[in-house]
Each structure stands twice: as structure tokens, then as C-alpha cells.
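Database export, one record per block. Field names are fixed; values are copied verbatim from the stored entry.
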Amino acid sequence: MKYKKLASILLGSAATAALVLTPAPAASAQTSATKAATASAGAGVQRDSIRCSKPRGKWANYSWGEGNTTVTIYFNNHCSHKVSAKIRFEAKGSVGSNGPKFQCMTVNAKTKGKKKFPARLYKAYSVTRVARCS
């Protein structure tokens, strides 16, 4: 009688171990597929930063992605002062080959947010510091 209980316990634990170990490769395949999807979704996002004057070691960060008719610039200013930035827009493909266009934006100290620009024929390319927007 003791042998029957021991055998059923061993068989039960072996079946449990088999169930626990079997889905592990499927779970890792889902994880790598999720990582690949996240990487491909993030491939269209571009980032740029401007170093702060005060405090040292802080940055004003900008990011954007290409849209159909607009570009939304997201910003996060860690500086203790306003930061003015010139955004360079490059032509999309062969359309709008008149050269780059520029937009200027000023971001208040210690703020984050977003600003939308019309960009039907152009895409955002880079962000550079300017003394002020005129």
C-alpha cells in the first residue's frame, strides 16, 4: 500500500514537472517576439538633446516620429532656464527639394510636453540650440 502511494506521488510530480517545463520555450518565443515588435515600433522614433548651461550635467531632451501630415516634437527640459531650439526639417523623398526648412520653439524651465508642427512634405531631422527664437 505504501508503494502505491509513493508511485502515484512520483508519477504526479513527474507530470507536473513535464507541464511546467513544456511551456518555457513557448514563453521565451513570445518574449522575443514582443521584444522584436517593440524594437521595430521604436525604430521610427528619433531623439536629440541640448546640454544645459545650468545645472551642469543636465539636458533638454527632444524626441519625434514621422507622421503623415504633422510631426509632434516631445520635449523634457531638465534645465533651470528656458531653452530655445531650432528644428531642422528635411524633404521627404524627392518632394520639396527646395532645401531644409526650420522651425523654432522655446521650452520653459523644468517642463515637459509636446508641440505639433505641420510637415506634409518634410520630416524632422535634428534639433540645435539657438540663443532665442525671433
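Remark 1: The beta strands are 45-51, 59-66, 70-77, 83-91, 101-107, 112-118, 122-130.
Remark 2: Residues 15-42 have pLDDT under 50 and may be disordered.
End of record.
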